[in-house]
Amino acid sequence: MAASQLAVAEIRARLQAPEEGLSSSEAATRLQQQGSNSLPQARGRSWWQRLWAQISNLLILVLLSAVVITALLGHTLDSVVILAVVISQALIGLVQEGRAEQALAAIRHMLAPAASVIRDGHSQRIAAADLVPGDTVLLEPGDRVPADIRLERCHSLSLDEAILTGESLAVEKQPEALAAASALGDQTNMAFSGTLVVRGTGRGVVVATGSRSEIGRISGLLQQTTGLQTPLLAQMDRFARLMATLVLAGGLLILLLGHWLSGLPFADLFIAVVGLTVAAIPEGLPAILSITLAVGVRRMAKRQAVVRRMPAIETIGAVSVICSDKTGTLTRNEMMVAALACGVHYRQVRGDGYALDGGLDEPLPEALQTPLMLAAALCNDASLQAAEGTVKIHGDPMEAALQVLVHRLDGDPVRLAQHWPRRDEIPFDAEYRLMATLNHNHQGRHVLWVKGAPEALLQRCRQQLDDAGNSVALQTGYWLEMIERLAADGQRVLALACKEYSGSELEMSDLNELQLIGLVGLMDPPRAEAIAAVAECHAAGIAVKMITGDHALTASAIAARLGLSNSAEVLTGKQLDELDDQALQDCVGRVNVYARTSPEHKLRLVQALQSSAGSGADSGNQRADGQGGAVVAMTGDGVNDAPALKAADVGIAMGHKGSQAAREASAVVLLDDNFASLVAAVKEGRTVYQNLKKGIAFMLPINGGESISLVVALLLGHTLPISALQILWVNMISSVILAMTLAFEPALPGMMQQPPRARFEPLLSRRLAWQVLKVSLLFLAGIFAAWHWGMAHSGSEAFASTVAVNALVAMELFYLFAVRYPPGQAISLQGFKGTPVIWAAIAALIVMQSLFNWLPLFQRTFNSSAPDVAALLVAAGCGIVLLLILQLEGWIRRGRG
Ligand code: ATP
């Protein structure tokens, strides 16, 4: 019989699944027997598919045809060398791609989904892969159901089952057994693995895991492919392909014209054209750029920011506004009840964090303290676990703080809960901002306990308690004053209320005519590192907006402590609703604190920021889509945050307290929920972008210099200063070794004192294009000068071209130091100190270049000839002169302002 037809008690008996959950040891045994709760991953591409992807690149195809033609022409040596280069290029490409994929795979496991289970008697978060049949699982809005679950308790639980059934409307669930076997979509008492909790909460027993679950049976494979592709890479790919096509067409033209007009021997001309082709195509560039991105992904992961969608790594560096949640992101989410307002009494609470000892500065009347403790303990889903002198909390930190308060009032929340079993509940809902439970004690009293945002509760209360425990009329004015007093101190205010109630089930409409017990004020101090990060954002021209569900005064007080600018001006969700889109756009740039908001407001804020002029800290940041708005990063954690996370330029989900739905909607996940990590990720994003630019600025002039040299030589009928094979050597060995180091460059000093770049700033800007042209010409001059000096010095073409190759490599090396810093700043102690990667690359370069110069096999292959000291000095001189010229130009430019 299917699980849906059995009563939960029957399922529990069959699976030996006790109500208080499995023990850890039993779970471990079952895990070993049943295997992990994960689906088999789709296998990646096979090695030959990956090899083909490398070979099917235009340059490789050109080289392969060159291999065939040179062989046919009888130039066997050339043919063999070109073939060797092709093979090594394909292998290097394979290895690099493999490493980049590994980098992504390594961070993917950081995002492994988690599940809330009851084990060893209390609820805890575990990796979803560790679930076993018989586990008791709790479901909340935003969760992906981690296994097939027979539900035993549901509170307005609705699941989106589209992944299984294709039905896009959420399905309401209930726990009763079904009479007959039914199709998946009709099994209303089952929650199937992979479906999404849209609303409500639930609890149930795991009946099938891994490939035995319905989704495991249907699909078997879980496709999970995020390539290393980004818009900039795609742009560069297109650019490289365009260049290659142009160069090939040009090469063909030169070949035909040269042969036909000047009657040059075809074989010589062909080799020269191959050289030109190789010289002009920036073959190493795509690899360098993807490595730069992969290094960026790894660096961000180290700083607790995991990139889920590659394009985000580019966008995050251009962010001009960060919209952040307050609780847990800007604050520590370590709550502590600091003050109480109960009846007419205001009390301060002594104690330290979650430590259980502490108490009130003055006692409260018993008739007030008892209901206060009961409400705090019963309308509460958290639990405390004393371990090795500290207290570990499970569940919501605010609810845990209320349990600690009960201890400090000399109560025991566990015993109270045993005396007052829960019959029903209305889980916390951000829309109503309250939570309620219905409990009955053993003397037959039924009481409804409610806690929530004070505005939400006050309007449902008619009465309050006096010192003797009698009901008296509610003094709304007094409570409003107390709310302000607590909130102005930066405390999160919560109201507690109760009512005698005879029914057995709870509905929202029952929550009226309540009796107010009192208010508690909870401290949640700002994170020290968030204060520094806010200041860093301001210096970097990034506006920070705080969006919170908390009270306006609490929000404003915390914002002031965080150093948020204009913290006194607060817009509440209600005020926001009254503004039309234009009015919102007009004030969204100015207002930095948004209080009592619900998730829907976040979407409006993102849209307003994206389309309002001057909404960033730096209003010069224009969007290329014609709008003058900001590039927005938005944080979120709940299922209802998903639309805003998707709409933001960079959606950022909280890894710790965030729901699976929020993660799936976001581009980046913050593992530690910390605002400072977010800012660190922005910094890494800016660094990645800088390094991409450095990679391009480095590679293009080398290709430019080489190809212009060849064209000039061909046009002037000059001997080629560097042969095709030598160019292959330089491009495949020295250029790649040196350029690779740029992927690992640290951020430039002062980077976070600059405003964000315009989002759609072209990578190859006019300034960069000018630099490419200028440096190409310098390379050209260096190559010819070295060649002529070599000829004059020795009279041998082999020697002259060896000097030219060495000069080219030396110019590359010095140019590497020049591109690392802005113009005019390369010659500095800092600049010459380099990085360990650079020095390793230089060592490798020297070894390889020595082989080129002095190893007889290489001399024969590349037609090189051992350079003497003077030749080496000339080569080095070319490099130094290049660096000096660039530095001089930088100085002059800076001098001009
Ligand atoms: P932030 O946006 O700063 O992260 P938040 O989104 O966590 O805050 P909500 O969770 O929406 O804010 O909470 C809004 C208000 O609802 C709180 O100020 C509090 O008064 C009330 N509240 C929060 N959690 C609970 C709960 N578990 N039970 C009852 N009331 C709650």
Quick structural summary:
This protein is an alpha+beta fold. Helix content is 49%, strand content 17%.
Structure in words:
It is a single chain. This protein is an alpha+beta fold and about 900 residues long. The protein contains 31 helices and 27 strands. Helix 22 links the parallel strand 25 and strand 26 (about 650-655). Helices cover about 50% and strands about 15% of the residues. Helix 4 runs antiparallel to helix 9, helix 5 runs parallel beside helix 10 (about 285-300) and helix 25 runs parallel beside helix 27 (about 795-820). Adenosine-5'-triphosphate binds next to helix 13, strand 16, strand 17 and strand 20. Adenosine-5'-triphosphate (ATP) binds near residues 327 and 548. It is a multi-pass membrane protein. This is HAD-IC family P-type ATPase.
